[in-house]
Task: inverse folding
């Protein structure tokens, strides 16, 4: 069993790298692991690659796979500064709207200027 939840991100997408950079900066307690999904073969991802490209996937410490809004929400709950705002994302109406907004942004990220950003450093040495 892994000791930390793992977020798999698209290292070729500026929006994804920026999102991971923010979550990583909040992860003072080192509860999360971050892996560029492009560096892995398909069978090591928690979900099929096509699904992984629809939103940031996560594999929890218990082996549960999730994609997009639920994965980001779970990651934020584990960070000191993200825990309180993330807890609000579990409220039924808020979670429904949050998931819709997340899915819209993820579906349109290819047209987003953020995906043209230069590569951010994704150093695995902290993992």
Result:
């Amino acid at each position: 069993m892994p000791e930390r939840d793992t977020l798999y991100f698209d290292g070729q997408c500026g929006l994804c790298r920026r999102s991971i950079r923010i979550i990583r900066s909040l992860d003072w307690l080192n509860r999360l692991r971050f892996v560029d999904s492009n560096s892995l073969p398909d069978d090591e991802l928690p979900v099929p690659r096509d699904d992984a490209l629809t939103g940031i996937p996560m594999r929890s410490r218990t082996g549960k796979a999730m994609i997009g809004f639920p994965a980001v929400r779970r990651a934020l709950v584990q960070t000191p500064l993200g825990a309180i705002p993330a807890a609000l994302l579990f409220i039924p109406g808020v979670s429904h709207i949050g998931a819709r907004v997340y899915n819209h942004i993820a579906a349109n990220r290819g047209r987003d200027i953020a995906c043209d950003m230069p590569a951010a450093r994704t150093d695995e040495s902290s993992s």
User: Anything to note?
Assistant: Residues 116-127 have pLDDT under 50 and may be disordered. The helical segments are 14-26, 49-52, 69-77, 83-88, 92-107.
